[in-house]
Every structure is written in structure tokens, then in C-alpha cells.
Amino acid sequence: MKFLAATGSVWKHRALAVAAGLLLAAAFPKIGLAGLAWLAPALILFVATSGKSPFRLGWLAGFAHYLASLYWLLRIPVDYMPIVGWLALSAFLALLTATWVWACAVSQRAATTWPRRLVWALGCAAVWVALEMTIARTFGGFPWNLLGSSQYEMLPLIQIASVTGVYGVSFLIIWFSVSLLLAVQQLLRQPTSRLLWLGEIILPLVVILLLATAGLRKIFDRPAAAREIKIALVQPSIPQTMIWNTADSTARFDQLIKLSEAALATKPDLLLWPEAAVPKLLRHDRPTYEAVTNLARTHRVWMIIGADDAEPHPQPDQPDAVDYFNSSFLVSPDGELAATYRKRRLVMFGEYVPLLRWLPFIKYLTPITGGFTPGDAVVPFAIPDLKLKTAVLICFEDAFPHLARDYVDDDTDFLVNLTNNGWFGESAAQWQHAAAAVFRAVENGRPLVRCANNGLTCWVDARGGQHEIYFGDTRDIYGAGFKTALLPLPAPGPRPTTFYNRHGDWFGWGCVLISVAILLANRLRLKAS
């Protein structure tokens, strides 16, 4: 570390910080080299603490990471380049990495013995989790690409999420990565003393192996299914430009109906359409309403569909005011709208414009001309004919661990996510979004069925395994078509939920308390120095 500080230039440190950030980005889909997530944080910390300004170098590494992993924001088909939002969001999220590096760098000075180094490594992991908890809740929250989600295919390891949430996996990654850095440092200082460097890494390694072993047993020890439900998932792959163009509404809706007719030929119990699949207001446009309800009646099928909704909300200065909602509807085989859920967590600048009353110029930074009103409640969708109960998460609502657990009761059979990722073309956004869904299934111990506009339509079992990812024998997830999912379920009625579902972010909040204590200790240490 001293050698690098003595010989390296400022630009060399910056280049290494950028490289470390890019390595972290490569741990997430589409590249998806999950092993890099265990190495990149150590490299970021090493490079940042070797330079003169750990906070700045940590921010630079984080900025490179988020620019690379969120590149798909540039695919939004608007008349102007969405580069401002991409840069601003990446710069803001990079503060997570910068703050983490700063907190670790300051507290490392006291890590002079093995017990103190162990406490320091655990503290670094707790601070990372606390910052992820903060990002998930700040300004509406953006818990996208949480570090643990990079391990979505490592099923034995991620079973710990049923207790700690995804944050437990993030904690393990950081603990191991920082311990690996300590091991390398000890090896460089005393290359002939193998036991010394091994002592730095052995404890996190043993814990990870024990947890993975327990997770593997949990995967093989799953209860036998008592029944099976057949679900047809329609993926229309409608370009976002067509969704915005009202002149294309008829062609778009006709394509959706044709795909649905083909899907219904397989005789499913339930038919799903993605978010915003219906081009007009379902309850207020008579031809649309009749087309949907006639489809359900003709085929005697239950449907869950994504469609906008509206209702009057008169105000003294605006007697014709209307509230619009991003909604999902449960349609019965009798053609009735049996239930309606309205999206509770809206996308900033995509579904509403913040601070518009005080900063009216902000409206020029977004393609939307109006805005949606958030829903105020979870609405279970009960399907009595099939003895089923489900709940719908719309769009990126399934990226929020603390939000998704509100949708699962002890008699909930599975979760549904209706989403439209057509905004981002054929990019990594679809894969990254689906990785988050894996953790919502594990955290709550329930399958999750995803129906997307242009990918990734699939279903996730209660242990996090993804099924029906591609169309047939192809490697395509983005095209138009339909899939059928045979969802194995236990007998109807109440059954146990997971520890995480019952108790929430106890682990995450514990890390927040530890992090506050670390930051206070750092402040006192800086004052004393």
C-alpha cells in the first residue's frame, strides 16, 4: 500500500479506481461474473486507501460502477439524450461507495491486532449494508443492483435471505472481500508466515461454507407439491414508442389479443398480461372493456392484466381534476373486474415529477407530461374457483425487499410481478430486474411469477430457481410470444412464512445501528488526532 502511494501518480490511482468500479459492474447481469463481486470491493478499498483522498477515489470507483451497470438508461426512447439522468443518478449512487470507503479508511487505523482486524472487517460489512438500506429508502428508494443480488444464481448461498433478506448476502460478500484484502496485506508483510494470512480469511470462509451447506439442504428438503396450476404468460414485446403513440393503439391491442388467443389454446387456469398492456383506460373505454371481458367469458379463464385506471378527484381550483393510476385488474371467467390493485411505489421522473410545485423547470427533464397517483393499499387477488390467493407487484416494486413482504400472508400462494421494461430496449435491465425477483421469492418463501412486456417473462420458485426463461430452444428473452408455467403449489390454506417475512429488516437495521456507532467513533477519533 505504501509502495503504491509513494510511486503511483494521481492519475494512476484514478485509473485503478475506475477499473475496480468496472470490475464490480461486471459482477451483475448481463456480464454476470458473480465471482467479481467478492473481489472488487477489496480492490476498491485498496486503491482508495492508497491515495490521498479515499472519499474521492471511492466515489470515482462507484461512479464508474454505476455508469457501466446502469447504461441501459441511455436506451430510453425520448427526443433528447437521457444522459443527464444517467449521470445524475450514477453520481448520487456513487456516494454509497465513497462513504463506505471513507468509513472503512478512518476506522482501519485502529485495526492493529487480529481481533481488531476481525471487528474492522465485520464493521466494513455492516456499513455497506447500512448504506444499501439507506439507498432503498432515500427519495422513494432505488434498491437496484444491491450487491447481494449479483449472486442470484448461487442458490445454496442465497437461502440466508429467508432470514436476513438480500442484505445478509451483501454482508457476507463484503466481509469476505475485506478479509481477503487483509490476508493479502499480511502475506506481503510476512510472506513466510502462512498461518498469519490464513487467519484473516478462515473465519468468513468457514461461515460462508456452513451457510451454503445449510442452503443446499434447504433446496433438497423442499415440501412435495399437492397441486399444480397452469399459467399462461403473454409477452407482447411492444416498443415503448408504440405505447406512447395513440395512433398505434388498435394494432397494439390486436396483437395482444392474438397472442392471448394462442396462449388460451393451451387451456391455462390463469392468463397474465404485463404492465401497461392495455392501451386505453380499461374501466372507461367501452370497446376495450368488452374485448377483455369477452375474452375471459369465452374461454372461462381468470385473467390478471396491467392497465391504467382513473377516477375524478375534483379540487376547488380544478373541478375537472382526475387521478390516474398504474393498475392491475383481476378479471373473472364471468367477465367481472373482481379486484383492482394500484401501484404504490412510483418511478421518479417516469411516473411522477418530484418538487414540481417549487421547481417547475424540472418538467422539461422528463418525457412524461402528467403523472400517476400512488395507490394506498395492498390488494390480495383471491381466485376462489382455483382456491388461490396471490398479490401483484407492478414494475420495480419487486426490487424493494421491505415492500414485497407486505404482499405475502400465510395463505398467499404466490406473488405476481407485471412489468414493462420496453423502455430500455434489449439491454441488461431485464436481467438485473429479474435478479431482484429471485430474492423476493427466497425472502418470502413463495414462488413469484413475472410477466413482462419484452423480457424477462418467467417464474421463480420459492428457493430462487428461475424457470421458463427463454422462448423454446432459443436464447431469446425479448421477443413477442407466450409461455406456459406449471406452478407446483402446496395444499390450499395457511402455511409457515419465512423469518424475514415475519420480522423484516432486523438484520439491516442492526447494521445501521452498528454503522452509526462506527461513524461516531470515527468522528471522535478524527477530533482526537
Write the layout of secondary structure elements.
Layout: H1 2-7, H2 10-25, H3 40-50, H4 54-69, H5 83-107, H6 114-135, H7 155-158, H8 161-164, H9 166-189, H10 194-220, E1 227-235, H11 240-244, H12 249-264, E2 270-272, H13 286-299, E3 302-312, E4 322-331, E5 337-342, E6 381-383, E7 388-394, H14 401-404, E8 414-419, H15 429-444, E9 448-452, E10 458-460, E11 466-467, E12 481-489, H16 499-503, H17 506-528
Parallel strand pairs: 1-2, 2-3, 7-8, 8-9
Antiparallel strand pairs: 1-12, 3-4, 4-5, 6-7, 9-10, 10-11
Helix pairs in contact: 2-3, 2-4, 3-4, 3-5, 3-9, 4-5, 5-6, 6-9, 6-17, 9-10
Structural commentary:
This protein has 529 residues and is an alpha/beta fold. It folds into two domains: 2-221 and 506-528, no CATH class; 227-489, Carbon-nitrogen hydrolase (Nitrilase/N-carbamoyl-D-aminoacid amidohydrolase), CATH 3.60.110. Helix content is 45%, strand content 14%. It contains 17 helices and twelve strands. The strands form two sheets. A six-stranded mixed beta sheet has the order 5-4-3-2-1-12. Strand 10 (458-460) and strand 11 form a beta hairpin. Helix 2 (10-25) packs antiparallel against helix 3 (40-50) and helix 2 (10-25) packs parallel to helix 4 (54-69). The longest helix has 27 residues, at 194-220.
CATH topology of the largest domain, by name, is Nitrilase/N-carbamoyl-D-aminoacid amidohydrolase
The CATH class of the largest domain is identified as Alpha Beta
Mean pLDDT: 90
Low-confidence parts, pLDDT < 50 over ≥5 residues? 1-7
Which class do the helix and strand fractions yield? Answer: alpha/beta
Domain unit count: 2
